[in-house]
Design a protein that fits this description.
Radius of gyration: 14 Å
Distance between the termini: 27 Å
Shape: globular
Helix content: 55-70%
Number of strands: 2
Largest sheet: 2 strands, parallel
């Protein structure tokens, strides 16, 4: 997957998550990597920065999970 496709996929995922969360009547646990939120907030692409407050507003009463800034694969450290 190219970098541009990965970014488009992340944008679609954030929009979908916001839509699902804002319409959910059941409690959900939500995990969003801080690295993704930082990248969106600092992006020069039109509309990216607005995705962050939109997602935050849709999380509302949902449980927000704490995630590390970067994904770490512990199996790599074992080698």
């Amino acid at each position: 997957m190219s970098r541009a496709n990965a970014k488009d996929s992340a944008r679609r995922s954030i929009r979908t998550a916001a839509a699902v969360l804002s319409g959910s009547m059941v409690p959900l646990a939500v995990g969003v990597r801080p690295e993704l939120l930082d990248a969106l907030a600092q992006s020069s692409t039109n509309g990216d920065a607005q995705l962050v407050p939109g997602l935050a507003a849709s999380i509302g009463r949902q449980r927000l999970l704490s995630l590390p800034y970067l994904h770490i694969d512990p199996s790599v450290a074992a080698d």
